[in-house]
Amino acid sequence: MQIKFLFINAINSSKEVETRYPPLGIGYLVSSLRKCFGEEAVECKVIDSNIEQEIVNFKPEIIGISSVSQNYNKAIAYARVAKKYNLPVVCGGVHISMMLSSLTKDMDIGVVGEGEETICELFELFSQEKKFDSDKLRKIRGIIYWDDKDKIVFTGRRDLIYPLDRLPLPARDLFRIRANAYIFSSRGCPYRCTFCASSRFWDKVRFFSAEYVVNEIEYLINRYNVKDINFYDDLFAADVRRIKKIVNLLKARNILGKVNFFGSVRANLVNDDLVKLLKEMGVKSLGMGLESGSNSTLKYLKGENIDVKDNENAIRIIKKYNIATQGSFVIGSPKEEKEDILETLRFVKKSGLSDFAIYVLTPFPGTPVWDYAKSKGLVNKKMDWDKLNVNFEDSHNSAIILSEKLSRDEIYKLFLQFKRYQKKKKFYNLIKRGLLNPWKIPGFLIKMFINKCCK
Predict the structure, then answer these.
(1) Are the beta carbons of 192 and 223 closer than 8 angstroms?
(2) What residues have CB less than 8 Å from 176, skipping those under 6 apart?
(3) Is residue 424 within a helix (H) or strand (E), and if so which, with residue range?
(4) Based on the number of CB atoms within 10 Å of its own CB, is 154 exposed (0-12), middle (13-18) or buried (19 or more)?
(5) Which of 45, 39, 40, 4 is nearest to 26 (CA)?
(6) Which among 404, 400, 412 has a CA at the least distance from the CA of 337?
(7) d(CA 289, CA 373)
(8) What is the CATH number of domain 177-453?
(9) Residue stretches of the chain with pLDDT short of 50
(10) pLDDT tens digit string along 371-408?
(11) Which of 349, 352, 374, 355 has its CA nearest to residue 363?
(12) Rounded mean pLDDT of the chain?
């Protein structure tokens, strides 16, 4: 008998940045269930809105919720809705893996770490019992659950999946796949930036083989006519030998040039050989977490093995090969002075970056920055998780401020300086790319726009 499994992606569905791509993490769970039990045993659906109506219409027998920390309030609310219909709730994702104690009474089980093998064991138990018996849950590694005494039991961490090629491709048939798609070609990062929860969630770096990656690329081209592929790895270019194999396979299969690629690199790893290889592969844009134009702030955020000069050198080399450069920056570190932030702004302006993003340092569970915020009494396991919203423009009145040197208002004013420059830069980029003809725009409108951006 087929069991209906409803997966809920706990996101803010009104934000384009959160709905831009389908949740491949859930896609891997679904494809793993299908591989283990066959499509005749499980029917899956993935949603991110209209939760109660979807429960009524789909009539699932089990609910899975995936959430990051800044959306965990939504996960809590969705679990509460599920319990109105007496449905068992399994919660997974980065947040619950980093903050085990935040499991609510409306959540029966939390999956800790990567969940493909765990979800199959849970599904097997549920299909046999039609419930989750606490004595039998104790035998499944990598979960937390409520015991008969209302205590959270942790069964211990599960071994990481290795090799990753054991995993089937994610179940993209459940999603709308556009011409601009993305893939994960690895899990984890060899570095440990103080603010990054992702590297700690995956724990160790593992790579899908070059053959697996090219198979997925070919599948996206043939099945969905994809034109652009983003590598959403923490650090796509960490293994240069694998990239060489990927390029050679793309050539051998006559795929090279049929799709554009986008990915991320770390500034201190950038050199001519790497960028030349990425250019040959068809990479059109590279993103870097540059974080700061101040060395003291940069080293606080990323460690001692990187320097502002590395950032400058990386941008120079990437631009030399006519690849677009994107940089992200973080302000608001505890010891960061106003001059440090202005130094970052000056760096952005002279850097020659194609585009950039600006964030205010946010304490995510499982990171050293979280530990710092906890020591200051700024966060706890029962906090309002909306305060971790990374969109500071929306959340500046409620966001957690970690700075010991600057007030909330001072940081917001500095943040707006970056945003004004960003708008000005985007305007000029449109003109440069020929998407706006300045001669057809009245001069007073251009002047008004520039004055507004530069206030």
Answers:
(1) no
(2) 22
(3) helix 408-432
(4) middle
(5) 45
(6) 404
(7) 22
(8) 3.80.30.20
(9) 436, 439, 454-455
(10) 999 999 999 999 999 999 999 999 999 999 999 999 99
(11) 374
(12) 93
Pull the structure tokens for residue 211. Answer: 């053959």
Instruction: Retrieve residue 291's tokens.
Output: 């974080």
**C-alpha span between 154 and 140 (Å, rounded):** 10
- How far apart, in whole angstroms, are the C-alpha atoms of residue 83 and residue 400? 31
Q: What distance in Å separates the CA atoms of residue 69 and residue 76, rounded to the nearest whole number?
A: 11
Omega before 163 cis (within 30°)? yes
CA-closest candidate to residue 48, choices 76, 80, 14: 14
| 455/299 Cα distance (integer angstroms) | 31
pLDDT at site 454:
47
pTM of the predicted model as reported, rounded to 2 decimal places:
0.93
Return residue ranges of the chain for CATH 3.40.50.10350. Answer: 3-154
End-to-end CA distance of the chain: 65
Amino acid at the residue 125: L
Q: pLDDT at position 443, please?
A: 55
- Give the span between the Cα atoms of 92 and 102, in whole angstroms: 12
Q: b or e along 324-337 (b: 16 or more beta carbons within 10 Å of the residue's beta carbon)? A: ebbbebbbbbbebe
* CATH 3.40.50.10350 applies to domain 3-154: yes
Q: How far apart are CA 371 and CA 5, in angstroms?
A: 36
Best CA proximity match to 234, nearest among 266, 259, 210:
266
Three-class SS of residue 107? coil
The neighbouring-strand residues paired with 66 are 9, 92
The tokens describing 359, both together, are 């964030």
Residues carrying CATH 3.80.30.20, the chain: 177-453
Query: How far is the C-alpha of 403 from the C-alpha of 406, rounded, in Å?
Result: 6
